[in-house]
C-alpha cells in the first residue's frame, strides 16, 4: 500500500476548504483506492515552519508515508524539504505560484504543482502594454500583494513598453473596508488602465466600491479576481473584464471536472481544489510506471508523471523546468442561462522574455513581504 499524507489548510475565506480538499483528492484517486491510502492531517494556518514540520513528521511516524502533499507558498518549501529528503518521503507542493520557486528550495524530493500566478502577473502587465496602455496603476489587496506578483506585473509591463506609475494596497484591516475614496483617487491620476489583484471577499468588495465610485479607467485583473466560485457575486461591473491565464477554464476537461465536483459538493472548485485533484492523479500515474515503491523509483516516476487534467497537460515542476508555452486571453461573459463565466478569446505563445525573467527571479530575488501559506485569503 502506498501511503500519501495530505495536509489540509484552514481558511476563513474559504470555509468549505477542509471538506472540499478530501473530496478532490478522492476524485483524483479514482479506482486506485486499493493501492493508495490517503492520510489527512489538519494543517491550520501554518505560516509557522516549525508547526508545519511537526505535522509532517508526525504523519511520517504514524503512517509510514511514501509522500506528503501540502498546499504552500513556495517560501516555506525550504523549511521542510530537508526533513522530507532525510526521511525519503516525496514532498508534493500545491501553490498558486505567487512567488517563484527559488533555487534554494529545490532538491530531488520536491515536486511542485503550480497555478503559475507569477507568470500570469508578468503576462498581464505585458498584455496591458500590447493593448496600448502605457501608464498603468496597480492595486492589490493586503492578502494578495505581499508576494512576487507586483514585481512580475511591473517587469512584464516594462517588457511590453509600459510602466507602472502608481501601486497601492487596499484592505489593510478587513475584507469589507470602504475603498471608494481610494478608487476615486486612482481615477483622478488618469492611468491608461488599472490592474487589480484581489480574491474572494476582497474582490467582491472592491468591485462594489468601484461601481459606487463610478470608476472610469479600464480594468484588468489577475485570475484570482474572477475565479468561478465567487464570479457571480461580483455584479455587472465585471462583465467584459479581461484576464490572462495559463489554461482554458471553458475547456471540455475543465468544465467536466467542475460539474463532477459540484455534483458532489454543491460548489464550484477553487484553484487549490483543482490542484489537489491533479496532484493525486499525478501520483497514480507515477505509480503506474514506477518499477517499485522504493524512494528512488518514486522520485524518478514523479519526474516523468504527466496527465491530461482540467488544465490540459499537467506535470510537476512546470514552473521550474517546462513552463507552459501558451497563455490565454479570457473575458467575463454571460452564458445562455445568464450566469457569468470566463470565456477564452485567444491563445498566444508565451514570450521567451517571460521565461528568462522567471529564471532570473529564481536566482536573484529573495522572499519579500509576508507569507500567506495558501494564497487563499
Written account of the structure:
- The protein has about 375 residues and is an alpha/beta fold.
- It has 2 domains: about 1-115 and about 250-315, 3-Layer(aba) Sandwich (Rossmann fold); about 120-245 and about 325-365, Response regulator (Rossmann fold).
- About 40% of the residues lie in helices and about 25% in strands.
- The chain contains 13 helices and 14 strands.
- The chain has helices at about 15-30, 50-65, 75-85, 115-130, 140-145, 150-160, 180-190, 200-210, 230, 250-265, 270-290, 295-305, 350-365; strands at about 1-10, 35-45, 65-70, 90-95, 110-115, 135-140, 165-170, 195, 220, 240-245, 305-310, 310-315, 325-335, 340-350.
- The strands form 3 sheets. It has a 7-stranded mixed beta sheet with strand order 7-6-8-9-10-13-14. A 5-stranded parallel beta sheet has the order 2-1-3-4-5, sandwiched between helices.
- Helix 8 links the parallel strand 8 and strand 9 (about 220).
- Helix 1 runs parallel beside helix 11 and helix 11 packs across helix 12.
- The model is unreliable at about 375 (pLDDT under 50).
- InterPro entries: BCAA_transport, Leu-bd, Peripla_BP_I.
- It comes from Arenicella xantha.
Q: Brief description of this entry?
A:
This is ABC-type branched-subunit amino acid transport system substrate-binding protein. The chain has helices spanning 17-29, 49-63, 77-86, 117-130, 142-145, 149-160, 180-188, 200-212, 228-231, 252-265, 271-289, 295-304, 352-364, and strands at 2-9, 36-44, 67-71, 90-95, 110-114, 135-141, 163-170, 193-197, 219-221, 242-245, 307-309, 312-314, 326-334, 340-349.
Amino acid at each position: 500500500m502506498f501511503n500519501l499524507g495530505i495536509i489540509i489548510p484552514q481558511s476563513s475565506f474559504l470555509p468549505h476548504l477542509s471538506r472540499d480538499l478530501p473530496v478532490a483528492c478522492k476524485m483524483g484517486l479514482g479506482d486506485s483506492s486499493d493501492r493508495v491510502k490517503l492520510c489527512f492531517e489538519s494543517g491550520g494556518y501554518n505560516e509557522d515552519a516549525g508547526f508545519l514540520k511537526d505535522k509532517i513528521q508526525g504523519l511520517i511516524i504514524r503512517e509510514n508515508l511514501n509522500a506528503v502533499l501540502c498546499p504552500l507558498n513556495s517560501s516555506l518549501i525550504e523549511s521542510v524539504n530537508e526533513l522530507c529528503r532525510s526521511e525519503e518521503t516525496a514532498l508534493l507542493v500545491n501553490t498558486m505560484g505567487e512567488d517563484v520557486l527559488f533555487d534554494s528550495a529545490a532538491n530531488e524530493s520536491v515536486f511542485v504543482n503550480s497555478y503559475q500566478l507569477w507568470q500570469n502577473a508578468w503576462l498581464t502587465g505585458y498584455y496591458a502594454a500590447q493593448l496600448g496602455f502605457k501608464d498603468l496603476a496597480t492595486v492589490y489587496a493586503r492578502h494578495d500583494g505581499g508576494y512576487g506578483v507586483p514585481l512580475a506585473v511591473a517587469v512584464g509591463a516594462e517588457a511590453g513598453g509600459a510602466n507602472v506609475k502608481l501601486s497601492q494596497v487596499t484592505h489593510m484591516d478587513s475584507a469589507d473596508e470602504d475603498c471608494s475614496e481610494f478608487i476615486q483617487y486612482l481615477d483622478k491620476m488618469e492611468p491608461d488602465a488599472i490592474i487589480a489583484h484581489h480574491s474572494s471577499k476582497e474582490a467582491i468588495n472592491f468591485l462594489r466600491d468601484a461601481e459606487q465610485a463610478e470608476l472610469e479607467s479600464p480594468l484588468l485583473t489577475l485570475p484570482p479576481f474572477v475565479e468561478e466560485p465567487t464570479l457571480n457575486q461580483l455584479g455587472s461591473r465585471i462583465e467584459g473584464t479581461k484576464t490572462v491565464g495559463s489554461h482554458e477554464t471553458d475547456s471540455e476537461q475543465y468544465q467536466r471536472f467542475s460539474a463532477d465536483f459540484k455534483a458532489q459538493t454543491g460548489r464550484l472548485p477553487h484553484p487549490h481544489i483543482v490542484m489537489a485533484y491533479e496532484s493525486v492523479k499525478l501520483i497514480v500515474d507515477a505509480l503506474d510506471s514506477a518499477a517499485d515503491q522504493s524512494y528512488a523509483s518514486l522520485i524518478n516516476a514523479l519526474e516523468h508523471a504527466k496527465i491530461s487534467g482540467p488544465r490540459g497537460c499537467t506535470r510537476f515542476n512546470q514552473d521550474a523546468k517546462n513552463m507552459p508555452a501558451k497563455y490565454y486571453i479570457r473575458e467575463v461573459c454571460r452564458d445562455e442561462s445568464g450566469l457569468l463565466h470566463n470565456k477564452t478569446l485567444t491563445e498566444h505563445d508565451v514570450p521567451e522574455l517571460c521565461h528568462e525573467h522567471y529564471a532570473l527571479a529564481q536566482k536573484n530575488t529573495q522572499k519579500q513581504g509576508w507569507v500567506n501559506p495558501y494564497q487563499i485569503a
